[in-house]
């Protein structure tokens, strides 16, 4: 009897424990099922409003004219209701224009609303900030290069560096010449070279339409005059005069201001230009300057339009777009943007960012830092991004390292290093420019760039998606 009681008690304890385990697993299974259904309902809510915006692009109130949230019943395939998506819609604006739309969708399952799931998405036009490099020309990435982020050329690509993201070319084949390290000339695939991760190479791919991503400078000038900061032409005369090569020195400050100086004269250097159509005389070195003004960056319109040459550096304290282009004067006046010093952000949480758009070149100055950091989206819309070759070895050559966090968009071939650009009787040939270069696209700006960053498409789509 005693043994029966003991073993009976043990049996009931085991049975109770096993029953509890089975019930707990069943509850966990039910919770996972409900969570999955709620997630699907929340996702359906996002897709519903994407469809709504495709038909009613300016309607952020679900046709009600009233503030949200908006309860959207989500049907199931059997004709019933899978659950309800509660939507909050908010427009992100700059300079009075909608730049993107944030959609928050909270989904609940029809049979159990106790485990909601929330998804947040940003609906916008995809921009050039999604790439580390876009070049409208053939290009050579040297063995010192480390590239983190998509890299695209409308021409051919010789990739000898390390790329950790897709490398694409719009060509099936192209002619590699001596300027790309091929002697004699030879026909190569769209992407070729000694670089690693070749499984990421892809060609041919569709071209990036540089005409389509062109900025409307006249419109941007009007917007800057009305809501941002506008700097008129300070230079004068034609390209043969010293007065033509004046401009503005723009220094961003972490306290939310920007210091502007008049560049009253520049030094003259004989160079080999990165943009082959440029003259062999360089005026990128500031010789004399005077203080002009200090501006507070407008909180609701981070746009600066400069109708003259502009030298840029500093700590960017918010999302700012700086445009350097000629609208008022004759077409023969073509200002350039110069990167004089480091450009960094006051905060690295995605709240700060810089887009620099030049109607011609974006050039790194001869007196740039030996170790240089550039954070931003740099768009040389009509010219080239790079650094000219100065007398080497000399006071401005060579340089050590260049790190770019953001995007480089160039109409012409880029170049910040010159192979065998230096020569001396003692050491022979050596490279000029920046000896080590690291490029990484900015993931936070890819989803939420500064205002008026050029778009890659006119179609809106989800550029960011996350679960809360």
Structure write-up:
This protein has 468 residues and is mainly β. The chain folds into two domains: 8-124, no CATH class; 128-460, no CATH class. The protein has helices spanning 2-55, 217-227, 443-447; strands spanning 70-75, 81-94, 97-109, 117-124, 133-135, 139-141, 145-148, 151-153, 157-159, 162-163, 167-169, 173-176, 186-189, 191-192, 201-202, 229-231, 247-252, 257-270, 281-296, 303-306, 309-316, 319-324, 337-345, 353-358, 362-364, 371-380, 385-386, 399-410, 417-424, 428-440, 461-467. The strands form five sheets. Strands 5, 7, 8, 10, 11, 15, 16, 20, 22, 24, 26, 28, 29 and 30 form a 14-stranded mixed sheet that branches. A seven-stranded mixed sheet has the order 19-18-17-21-23-25-27, with no helix packed on it. The chain is globular, with a radius of gyration of 29 Å. The termini are far apart.
């Amino acid at each position: 009897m005693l043994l029966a009681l003991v073993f009976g008690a043990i049996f009931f304890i085991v049975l109770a424990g096993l029953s509890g385990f089975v019930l707990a697993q069943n509850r966990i299974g039910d919770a996972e099922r409900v969570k999955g259904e709620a997630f699907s309902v929340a996702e359906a809510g996002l897709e519903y409003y994407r469809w709504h915006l495709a038909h009613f692009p300016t309607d952020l109130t679900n046709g009600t004219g009233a503030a949200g949230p908006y309860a959207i019943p989500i049907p199931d395939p059997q004709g019933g209701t899978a659950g309800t998506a509660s939507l909050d819609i908010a427009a992100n604006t700059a300079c009075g224009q909608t730049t993107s739309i944030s959609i928050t969708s909270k989904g609940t399952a029809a049979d159990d609303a106790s485990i909601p799931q929330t998804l947040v998405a940003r609906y916008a036009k995809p921009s050039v900030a999604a790439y580390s490099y876009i070049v409208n020309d053939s290009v050579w990435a040297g063995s010192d290069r480390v590239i983190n982020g998509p890299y695209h050329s409308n021409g051919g690509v010789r990739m000898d560096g390390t790329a950790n993201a897709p490398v694409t070319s719009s060509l099936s084949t192209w002619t590699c010449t001596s300027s790309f390290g091929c002697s004699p000339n030879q026909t190569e695939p769209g992407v070729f070279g000694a670089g690693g991760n070749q499984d990421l190479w892809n060609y041919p791919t569709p071209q990036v339409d540089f005409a389509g991503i062109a900025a409307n400078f006249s419109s941007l000038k009007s917007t800057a005059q009305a809501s941002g900061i506008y700097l008129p032409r300070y230079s004068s005369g034609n390209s043969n005069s010293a007065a033509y090569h004046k401009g503005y020195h723009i220094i961003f400050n972490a306290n939310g201001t920007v210091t502007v100086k008049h560049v009253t004269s520049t030094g003259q250097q004989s160079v080999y230009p990165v943009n082959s159509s440029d003259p062999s005389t360089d005026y990128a070195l500031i010789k004399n300057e005077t203080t002009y003004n200090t501006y507070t960056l407008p909180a609701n319109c981070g746009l600066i339009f400069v109708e003259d040459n502009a030298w840029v550096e500093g700590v960017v304290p918010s999302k700012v777009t700086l445009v350097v282009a000629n609208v008022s004067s004759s077409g023969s006046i073509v200002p350039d943007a110069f990167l004089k010093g480091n450009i960094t952000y006051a905060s690295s949480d995605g709240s700060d960012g810089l887009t620099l758009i030049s109607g011609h070149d974006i050039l790194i100055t001869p007196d740039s830092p030996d170790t240089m950091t550039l954070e931003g989206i740099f768009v040389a819309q009509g010219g080239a991004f790079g650094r000219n070759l100065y007398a080497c070895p000399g006071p401005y050559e060579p340089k050590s390292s260049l790190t770019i966090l953001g995007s480089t968009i160039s109409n012409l071939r880029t170049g910040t290093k010159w192979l065998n650009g230096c020569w001396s009787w003692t050491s022979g040939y050596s490279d000029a420019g920046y000896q080590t270069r690291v490029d990484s696209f900015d993931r936070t700006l890819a989803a939420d760039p500064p205002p008026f960053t050029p778009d890659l498409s006119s179609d809106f789509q989800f550029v960011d998606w996350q679960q809360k």
